[in-house]
Design goal:
Shape: rod-shaped
Strand order of the largest sheet: 1-2
Helix content: 25-40%
Distance between the termini: 74 Å
Strand content: 5-15%
Largest sheet: 2 strands, antiparallel
Number of helices: 3
Radius of gyration: 30 Å
Mean pLDDT: 79
Structural class: alpha+beta
Number of strands: 2
Length: 91
Amino acid sequence: MDINASIMLCFDVCGHTLSLDDDVAVLLEQMRKARDTTFKRVVNDALREGLARLSSPAETRAFRTQPVDLGGCYYPNLDNVWEVGGVKSFV
């Protein structure tokens, strides 16, 4: 199969039609040849593995940051940003 060819493969499986994009069909065919097995088996194996991955939660790992002492604050009170900015009043 040529990935540049404009073809659509349709397979009748248990009364259902499975339409594959060209790039997917090429990858499945390459895998079929490499494993020397049937196209049906490769499709089913790929679907099983893909569905298992999609249905399980994504693997995560903890993210930790190291605290750093930045020293004291230059301004004793940061509640009024106008004072910190040197502005007496907004009005």
